[in-house]
Write a structure and sequence with these properties.
mainly alpha; two-stranded parallel sheet; 2 strands; 27% helix; 4% strand
Amino acid sequence: MSGDHRLEGTIVAVGPQVKPFESQPALIDMAPTIVSALDAPTAVQPKGRTLHEVVGREKALTARESTVRIPGMGESAVSDTEADEMEEHLRGLGYIE
C-alpha cells in the first residue's frame, strides 16, 4: 500500500444506541450509516451497510426516486471498462477489498 492510505480506521460513537460491532465495519459503511441516522431519503443504493450498532436497529435507508436528470447521461456516466478500472484503483488504495 502506498501513501497514507490504510485499511484500518477508527470509529468513535457515544449514545444510548451504541453497541459493540457484530462484524468489522468498513469505510464504505459510513455513508449509509450517516444517511440512516439523519432519516434522509436517498436515490442511491449504497454498497455499504448501515451500522445498526451505532444508529440503532430501527434506522434504515429510505429509498426515493431520483428526480435529477443530467442531459446527455444515460443510466451510467462511465463504461463497464472505466468502472472496472476505477474499482481496481480504489482497491489498490485500500478503500475497498
